[in-house]
Design goal:
two-stranded antiparallel ribbon; 5 strands; globular
Amino acid sequence: MQELATAWNNGDAAAWSAHLVEEVSHTVWNGHHITRRDAVTAGHAHLFNTVYKGTRQVFNVRWVRFLRPDVAAVQWGSLYFSHRKRRSSKNDETEVSL
């Protein structure tokens, strides 16, 4: 999770998606669905250069469940910071990743 936070905070799309498998199925906080790691990387590169440029996130891991020794499901929330506003922790984003 720290690697994700660091990648986001550095605006580094390649690092953000480096942990994803090539055939990933990724659902974004707003319900948008993306398949394939290269599409996730390209999408985040666009975001980091436009609407999320200069933003920061702090992640809060809520739970981790190991499905097998090398695969875990993780639910986390995030607080989003920009030079314009801070999202309230009551409205933080929640994601689950495998």
